[in-house]
Design goal:
Elements (H helix, E strand, L loop, with lengths): L28 H20 L7 H10 L2 H16 L3 H22 L2 H12 L8 H16 L6 H31 L2 E3 L10 H13 L5 E3 L3 H10 L3 H12 L11 H17 L5 H6 L7 H32 L8 H16 L3 H4 L5 H16 L2 E4 L11 E6 L5 E8 L11 E6 L2 E3 L2 E3 L2 E5 L15 H18 L20 H7 L5 H4 L14 H10 L4 H19 L9 H9 L18 H4 L9 H19 L4 H12 L7 H9 L6 H6 L4
């Protein structure tokens, strides 16, 4: 296949040069990647062979631009790998992954190229660079060093082998988790077994069964089915079965088992860190973070653990006592927690998901979330069906600034499918950058797995799904409002423990009546969400927040345990996990289940030695939102400051500098402890 008829290599003749998805076929990807890599290599050769002495413009800026075609092709490919994958795409990924790793290594380990970068870096004090140029130069130099540029030739070969194997193992890990999730189904034909389940879930399960030409109710372990099932199913045996199906993912000793993959990934990461002169992989990662070291991370985790443990133990005792009052005599197990917790919440606050869902019809909620961005930042959204999409359910929007200037494309993809991995995320098909006086705007995507519409009702979101929408939309704002010169410093290209601030601050509006009144009306009656319900949401926000904190801390401690190892771990994965998470566990251990084997954040995503950042960012977001609480939920000056100092600036300065410019001071943990009821 030649470049002339490969749509991935031709100019995109679409609105805003968006990807022409209907024209792209699987067989286009490998040739496009090969051609784009060749083009990238020739751009690198031009930098290396430039007879002029190295300068910021002819070396650092040219390097920043090199490989743009490859970024475009791989941006399309890897987004589809997460959102609309199939066996063929997964095979292509396995073929492409080592080639892309080799391409990256050929750049990072090129001594002539590094020589030019180093020459510019060592001369930096005389270059009169602005703040963003200085950051680009520092980042570029550090990336070369952190990717092995200072290694000997033998060490470079070792680095190549490690990085190639790691890229393959991460792919394999993610594929296994997706296949395990898709594999489990539970058909129930006796309705008596389904007592307690709300009508909306039964309808969704019946629709699932019908779609597969089955009679009865079909359940799986995707989030919109699993969460409500565990909350409402009276049948304890069924709750236990679904819990095991979910909690044992890739931990069964079969073809999709990830135990060896986890241990090998951890071993290779340690090897790589050692090769680069670090004691542990966490030391390597945290060098570029706000926490700055393992000590900084453990200080935060232990501080929160100390505050949360006594409160979480009280919360558990309350649930145990409540379950006893309902005649439950066994030991409380993980598959009982959501069920009795939901019942106690209903009793205490007269509140449950089913009462709230009618007020969060998806289309109106989209209007509400977009309307919040309009109110705060002056931006508007226009659905444009002429923008091609990768699946008919995806909604493509044009985003405009308050002066009518085009800002971004936003793809919104809301419901689960077999080809979509679980969870929710934001990504970019194309980042933002500026060149030759032109501001090249980004193409952003948010992907969720929300409750589907059924024959009798539209898509009605749980309150948790609504908050998830706000969260991912916060990431999207970070991408859409990007205003940097360089793509590598644009949008969400920031320290891992800063990236969650824009997403988590948006969640704070979820329970504010002043905001909810703008869109949250009953989908049948048109009645606004009652004050009494919002009051109950507010009152219930601290309900079992210590338990939720302990859960997040358990993942943070597990992550750090794997990545602070100083020697490869060869023992049992399960016993390693139990030891790492012991201080946070409130239930008896359950054999046959594991977290690590399905912990995609760590082993198929970018959160290794970084999962703590969710709690770190909660400290930031609680502190940052306290300014809105003080000055007004829609205070224009505060919103403008947040836009100018946080959302637009990306990674152009150290995050603490950006934060202090917005907040006027460094963050403290006080606002988080107060919000969580842990103070």
């Amino acid at each position: 296949m030649n470049a002339q008829n490969n749509p991935l290599l031709l100019p995109f003749d679409t609105p805003h040069q968006t990807a022409p998805f209907p024209e792209i076929r699987n067989e286009h990807f490998m040739p496009a990647m090969m051609e784009a890599m060749e083009q990238g290599r020739s751009e690198i050769r031009a930098i290396v062979e430039n007879p002029e002495p190295p300068t910021f413009a002819n070396t650092i800026e040219e390097l920043e631009k090199a490989g743009r075609q490859l970024s475009r092709v791989s941006g399309v490919f890897y987004n589809l790998m997460s959102s609309e994958t199939n066996d063929e795409l997964q095979k292509i990924a396995q073929e492409a992954s080592p080639l892309l790793t080799r391409y990256q290594n050929d750049i990072s380990l090129n001594p002539e190229l590094f020589g030019r970068v180093k020459a510019v870096y060592e001369n930096r004090d005389k270059l009169n660079l602005n703040t963003e140029q200085t950051m680009l130069l520092n980042n570029t130099y550090q990336q070369f060093v952190r990717r092995g540029a200072n290694l000997t030739e033998d060490q470079k070969e070792k680095y190549r082998a490690i990085s190639t194997e790691l890229s393959m193992l991460s792919l394999k890990f993610g594929d296994n988790v997706l296949k395990e999730t898709n594999q489990y189904e539970k058909l129930i034909t006796d309705k008596n077994l389904l007592s307690g389940l709300p009508g909306s879930l039964l309808e969704a399960a019946e629709a699932k069964a019908k779609a597969k030409k089955m009679e009865g109710w079909l359940f799986d372990i995707t989030a919109p089915i699993y969460g409500p099932f565990m909350k409402y199913a009276d049948n304890r045996d069924l709750r236990r079965e679904l819990y095991f199906a979910s909690a044992s993912k890739s931990f069964k000793g079969d073809d999709y088992d990830n135990q060896d993959n986890v241990k090998r990934i951890v071993e290779l990461r340690l090897e790589m860190a050692r090769l680069l002169g670090y004691n542990t992989y966490a030391d390597y990662v945290l060098e570029r973070s706000m926490a700055s070291s393992s000590e900084g991370v453990y200080q935060l985790l232990n501080q929160l653990l100390e505050s949360a443990t006594p409160v979480a133990e009280k919360e558990k005792a309350e649930i145990v006592e409540f379950a006893r009052s309902l005649g439950f005599t066994d030991e409380l197990m993980p598959w009982d927690w959501s069920y009795y917790s939901e019942k106690l919440k209903e009793k205490k606050f007269d509140l449950n998901d089913e009462m709230l869902k009618p007020y969060f019809e998806l289309n109106r909620t989209i209007d509400g979330v977009f309307g919040l961005a309009t109110e705060l930042f002056g931006i508007t959204f226009k659905l444009n069906r002429d923008i091609p999409v990768y699946h008919e359910e995806v909604l493509p929007y044009e985003v405009f600034d308050r002066d009518g200037r085009f800002l971004s494309v936003l793809y919104a993809d809301f419901h689960p499918r077999a080809g979509k991995r679980g969870g929710a995320w934001m990504n970019a098909f194309k980042p933002q950058w500026k060149e030759n006086g032109i501001d090249s705007r980004p193409h952003i995507t948010i992907v969720m797995n929300f409750t589907r519409p059924t024959e009798s009702r539209p898509s009605l979101l749980t309150f948790y799904e609504f908050r998830t929408f706000l969260h991912e939309f916060g990431h999207a704002l970070h991408g859409m409002l990007a205003n940097s010169t360089y793509a590598s410093l644009s949008g969400t290209s920031v320290y891992r423990d800063f990236v969650e601030l824009p997403s988590q601050i948006m969640e704070n509006w979820a329970s504010e009546k002043e905001f909810l009144d703008r869109f949250a009306v009953h989908y049948e009656t048109g009645e606004k969400i009652p004050e009494s319900l919002v009051k109950k949401i507010k009152e219930s926000e601290k309900f079992q927040s210590a338990f939720a904190t302990m859960r997040q801390l358990s993942f943070g401690f597990l992550d750090m345990a794997w990545h602070t190892l100083e020697n490869p771990y060869t023992g049992e994965l399960k016993s390693f996990e139990e030891s790492a998470m012991q201080k946070t566990q409130l239930f008896p251990k359950v054999d046959g289940t594991a977290m690590s084997t399905q912990f995609s954040h760590l082993f198929a995503g970018g959160y290794a030695a970084g999962y703590y950042s969710y709690k770190w960012s909660e400290v930031l977001d609680a502190d940052a939102f306290s300014l809105f609480k003080e000055r007004g939920l829609f205070d224009k000056a505060t919103a403008e400051s947040f836009r100018n100092n946080i959302l637009e600036r990306g990674g152009t300065e150290h995050p603490m500098e950006l934060y202090k410019r917005y907040r006027g001071q460094e963050p403290t943990v006080d606002a988080l402890l107060e919000r969580s009821g842990l103070k």
